[in-house]
Amino acid sequence: MARKEPRVENVDEKDIQVTSPKEWAAGIPAVYHSLKPAVQHMGAKRALEATFKMNQKDGFDCPSCAWPDPSHRSKFEYCEEGVKAVTWEASPVIIPSEFWAEHSITELRGRTEYWLGMQGRLTEPVYKPAGEDHYRVISWDEAFRIVADKLNGLDSPHEAAFYTSGRTSNEAAFLYQLLVRGFGTNNLPDCSNMCHESSGWAMGQTIGIGKATVTYDDFGKADLIILMGQNPGTNHPRMLTALEECKRNGGSIVAVNPLPEAGMRRYKNPQKVRGIAGKGTELADQFLQIRLGGDMALLQAISKRVLEAEEKNPGTVLDHDFLEKHCEGLADLKEHLVHLDDQTVVEATGLPIEEINELADRYLRAEKVIITWAMGITQQKKAVPTIKEIINLLLLRGNIGKPGAGAAPIRGHSNVQGDRTMGIWEQMPPAFLDALGKEFNFDPPRDHGVDAVETFYKMQEGHIKVFVALGGNLISAISDTQFAEAAMQKTEMTVQISIKLNRSHLITGEEALILPTKGRTEQDIQESGPQFVSVEDTVCVVHASRGNLTPVSQNLLSEPAIVSRLGALVVGDRIDADWEGYEKNYDLIRDHIGRVVDGCDNYNERIRHEGGFVLPNGPRDSRTFPTPTGKAVLTVNDLEAVERPEGTLILQSLRSHDQWNTTIYGHNDRYRGIRGGRHVLFMNAQDITELGLADGQYVDIHGIHHDGAERVLRKFRVVSYPTPKGCVAAYYPEANVLVPMDHVAEGSNTPVSKTVLVRVEPNLDPAHEQAEDFKTRAPA
Ligand SMILES: Nc1nc2c(c(=O)[nH]1)N[C@H]1C(S)=C(S)[C@@H](COP(=O)(O)OP(=O)(O)OC[C@H]3O[C@@H](n4cnc5c(=O)[nH]c(N)nc54)[C@H](O)[C@@H]3O)O[C@H]1N2
Ligand SMILES: Nc1nc2c(c(=O)[nH]1)N[C@H]1C(S)=C(S)[C@@H](COP(=O)(O)OP(=O)(O)OC[C@H]3O[C@@H](n4cnc5c(=O)[nH]c(N)nc54)[C@H](O)[C@@H]3O)O[C@H]1N2
Ligand code: SF4
Ligand SMILES: [Mo]
């Protein structure tokens, strides 16, 4: 394919513009904005080929988020974000061989993630020898040999860590964990460690399974959906269609969020005439503008009101039959919540008591309730107990295991849930390891491996010497950027299997390699013919995904091919694996999956059914709870206030509308009214005044932590925004500099990216003292 030049605009943070935040999401502007870049970069033909196959039964799974497809699909089962993801991946712009001689690694480190991503697709394996500052192109054989020799030369397999990001297919993930365990370690950190790990722990300990207990159709059947700590308008856009369906069927929706996110207010469905012409559907019936970290108190307050209502009208409020048959712990929970006082709740949540009462009334009136949540809940110090409180509230009225009701952690990466099902976890349970060992005739390691945060401590201590990543951009995604980069640079070798350039390729070990791979959208033809892969969505539906575009280069290997070739050299015949065969025919991988992974029997056959199949889920299907006692557990959790000393603020880090995690598509955050920049700090107007600052002023944001280390982000613009007093927000991954590595959720070790203590000071750089060029929003 002919090289096309990347078009990279020069983004000057000085020209940032701010207007009022939007009240609605999607509709015509969204479709227009989404199609424009696709057509510009890809050419109309390739763009159309891509979008028409996205999320169709014979096409590829949208590589963006994990939101499910309805069983009746329209011709346009995609959203703006999906189109952006596909465009970013499938644009036929490639990095030429000369690039590596022209740019030193040091120079590239000065570039932004946006610039790096816009250079185009990686198509050749490259290698940076020790002591050099440039990558150079090498052959695939050389690349595999260098990595294998290094791994095989380690004193212990635990000196290597193997990261996975959640776009990886089930087939690649299964082979990868086999390679790692065959090699002899459980060091399998993944993006989930930073994402829904807290959900997995809390749900595992209470209902016995860390996955959503709802199906797609349940959203349309619910009387009430409570969305907590989630911004679906940007991060799961087609979820708004499911919410709209709930409303059309007479259900109501409540959003609990510090920010009035656009999609929560009004939604214009781009696939419906009324969405384009009308005002759209009002989605949220109630919006509770909660303080950062206040959710646990809110949930306890609602549960307490449920229990009080039962006291008043015995036998009519709780689902006694369900509680007796299927649950334990009710008495302790009752006893605990009696002592909760309203004052504590009001302080923690910042919510008027009337709003809390209103939500309790809504909950009591509804027969079928779904609670959904995402990063606003999971990336908190008390995330695990908070999610346990979600489960408590649901269990009290039997809202698990019946139509239109359930617990719904909304996953991020398109296959992050499938990767876990396939064994990507540093702590897979013994039953899985037994089955794996039996299938491949070896003894898998049993000691738990390291998670994402632990990986960095082990690197810093010199215990992890080789780092391999199957996708992702861990150095930008993890907390404490300075600490993390220093730790990564202590390793002896870093190996990144990637589709595009990112910062993780530039913060390297002594030696480093980049192995380019095919994307989800691209055809994958092997010796036995065209191949497909499979993925699992947020509601446990497993289905096939077939790329249809011509790969941007014929030199690319698929992820399963890369992992098999490494497996042959690193593990070889130490286990009974047909490494050569897997690459030729992915059915062979699926045969193993069918025998090893719970719920995947006859995988090859069932994955070929139209629309795939649904994995079993005890709580959802039959109110069977795979806990040690066979019962769902109501838990007692102690509240702890988020401390905010005078003069400090609590910062959350979040996603803009123009990014995919660490991938920056552009510099606008349309729904929040930001154009042309990302270096902004959203702040409550009263805080701005009290701190003697002005809207639009440049400030420095200092992290405050007991270790006293300097963590600072300089020259960010203050943007007056409807966020609760004391709570500020900035974009991830820029804000990761401020999150201390040991600031993690209790129990799940997930970085607490949503409550970081900071201090804000005027930036004293004379050139920026005045913010005259700042275009403030017109008064609302
Ligand atoms: N376009 C796009 N789609 C994506 C992604 C992307 O980057 N871009 N990322 C994917 C991934 S991996 C994930 S995990 C998901 C993330 O999806 P989200 O969880 O929606 O992502 P965030 O931007 O982190 O937004 C967190 C939301 O929680 C709110 N929040 C923060 N703190 C609190 C709190 O203490 N309490 C409550 N109640 N709310 C709070 C924030 O205001 C914000 O609305 O999206 C996935 N989809
Ligand atoms: N402060 C803060 N930190 C956070 C978060 C937050 O909200 N705040 N969110 C956390 C969350 S929820 C997550 S999930 C993590 C995300 O952490 P990661 O999953 O590590 O990061 P991504 O940005 O999703 O990874 C993007 C890279 O993946 C590669 N890639 C894309 N598609 C493919 C593919 O098909 N194959 C391969 N091999 N590579 C591919 C590309 O090279 C791209 O640069 O970040 C976490 N970090
Ligand atoms: S909602 Fe998520 S999976 Fe669906 S099209 Fe949009 S980005 Fe893709
Ligand atoms: Mo995520």
TrEMBL record:
Gene3D superfamilies documented for this protein: 2.40.40.20, 3.40.50.740, Dimethylsulfoxide Reductase, domain 2 (3.40.228.10)
Entry-linked CDD domains: MopB_CT_ydeP, MopB_ydeP
Every Molybdopterin oxidoreductase domain range: 121-501
A GO cellular component entry from the record: membrane
Obligatory cofactor(s): Mo-bis(molybdopterin guanine dinucleotide); [4Fe-4S] cluster
Family: Belongs to the prokaryotic molybdopterin-containing oxidoreductase family.
Domain named Molybdopterin dinucleotide-binding: residues: 649-756
InterPro entries tied to this protein: Asp_de-COase-like_dom_sf, MopB_CT_YdeP, MoPterin_dinucl-bd_dom, Mopterin_OxRdtase, Mopterin_OxRdtse_a_bac, Prok_molybdopt-oxidoreductase, YdeP_MopB
Origin species: Arthrobacter sunyaminii
Protein name: FdhF/YdeP family oxidoreductase
Annotated SUPFAM superfamilies: ADC-like, Formate dehydrogenase/DMSO reductase, domains 1-3
Coiled coil region boundaries: none
Annotated keywords: 4Fe-4S, Iron, Iron-sulfur, Metal-binding, Molybdenum, Oxidoreductase
Gene Ontology molecular function, alphabetical: 4 iron, 4 sulfur cluster binding; formate dehydrogenase (NAD+) activity; molybdenum ion binding; molybdopterin cofactor binding
